[in-house]
Amino acid sequence: MKNPKKQSIMQTLFLPYTALFIVVILSFTIHTIATETTKLKTSAFSTLQNNAAIIMDNFESVIHDLDTVSQNIIYSNLIKEKFGTYLNYQDSTLSSNEIYESINNTKILYDLIIAMIGPNSPADQTYLYSLDSGKFGVGLDNTTSKESASSRDWYDQVTQLEGKKYIYCEKDDKLGRYYSYPGDNNFISLCRVFYSPLNIPQGIVEVKKSFKSVANAITAFKSPYDEEVYLYSPDGKTVYSTGGIEHQELYFNLITEQLKDPSKDLSKTPIYLKSENKYIIYTTSDYTGFITALIIDNQMLMQPIYQYISTNLMLLFFVMVITVLVSYLISRRIATPLYKIYNQVRTFQLTGEEKGTAFEEMDLGITEVNTLYQALLKMQTQARTSMERELQLQNSDMQSKMLALQAQMNPHFLYNSLATIQAMADENMNHEIIMMCQTISRILRYISSDEEQLVSLKDELSHTQDYLECMKVRYHENLQFEFDIPEAMQEVRLPKLCLQLIVENAIKYSTKSSPPWNVKILGILTNTYWEIQIKDNGPGFTKEDLDDLQKKIALIEKNSALPNLEIDGMGLMNIYIRFKILYKGKHIFKLSNNVPHGAIVVIGGIIP
Description:
The protein is of the alpha+beta class. It has 15 helices and 18 strands. The strands form four sheets. Strands 3-2-1-6-5-4 form a six-stranded antiparallel sheet, with helices on both faces. β10 and β11 form a beta hairpin. α1 (about 10-75) packs across α8, α10 crosses α12 and α11 (about 430-450) packs antiparallel against α12. It is flat and about 120 Å long. Mean pLDDT is about 80; it is low at about 350-355.
């Protein structure tokens, strides 16, 4: 039997790898050409889908601004009062004093609406309609009249919505004359019924904005696909288009048919119109019900693909030639210093006491190979040092995760608190704002302090009460809470933030049911243990969730192995893990459902 032919490292590197590189490049190129059409189409569809979403976001932004203005107006009791006074003055013969009062009332009403619109002018025009007779305009048209809201086309739809927004887009030549550019008589309008303090329909507010801001955003796109843009209202009316009118209804019908088909991924499935060789990409708005559609010709879509294929075929030949040359140079570059190392190692005999110092210091010309050569001299020492460092890093990693978990805060709590402060500011609730800001400041100070992992129950209860007070400002009398903690438990030590996070979880799930929502925190202290029960009247744990949590806890208790702490969330399992770590197994952690409804979470510890 012949021994296999031995090859030098130069031959081993150059010959097979050169052949491998060529085969890989050929295979990759062929595969790329065969599959790139689908990939580029997907990328193009994704780009067009994003464009449609951006256009829809711009439109929704305008609607949101109009919605904000309309709500600011209808929730202002002073505006409704002044509008009611305005209507009263229209229905009677006025004395000189009443004429003066009427003029003054009209000025105040005008100033109030201007203040609600604000300096950024999110709305071009605002009309207040009486349900019987009377119209008050602020903005481009500041006229008043006895026009009845019932004479408007949208009256029935608006009144049926009972205070919800109604959106429509149409031409308004009366307002359009205030713009000097052609085509500026298209307006977006939002209407809704507003009510008196006794919840009686009092009138209708209509807020209007020129469509030119949306049109400018659409025309600003510089897409390489030269697509047509259509914006449809929920009833199929074409609000805006950059294409022809002959297929507008066809496009809308195709989109609505696909929306009714639950088997398709509506966000990623374009519609192919074979008769026109075109694709329809669209997006819908849950907020407004409007639809944005982009129509692209298939030839325009394929043009980048054809260009890509021709470019790749031209590059293929040059790449193969360069690959052979580079393979040879790399093989030679790698082989030369390895020959030097080989000659050194061949003459060196390693014994139990030697450290490898017999190797000669030499520059091999390649940074990585030099590093490898030096590593041979230091391997044993570094292995021992690395092991010690690894143990230290593991301990530091666990400590860092615990501190990171302690420092987390639900951003939605902060957002909702700021929104609540803003709402109170609108109502000049200065005392409540000061109290709210002080409470949030204490909460942030408590959360950001990381001096200790265990804190006193007294401090944790104070922080939890601050959190509940903030939530009560948000939910008012719908949220009730109660503390029943023995005085002797005030200095009990427990993991920081665990109590507040359980209470936060209770409120989160309780608010999914009908109010009022009750949260009770009960403390129990005996000679052998202490525990805290957090009860709520929400929907409670589902059987599946409760079984899943119990299985995870049982698995940890059985194997005595802890899973990784989740930095992305502060769930019940994280709190359980913290108790197990910090109390070294002498902890109490129970989950159950309350009777007749609600959840109970019990935490505690064994008194040594």
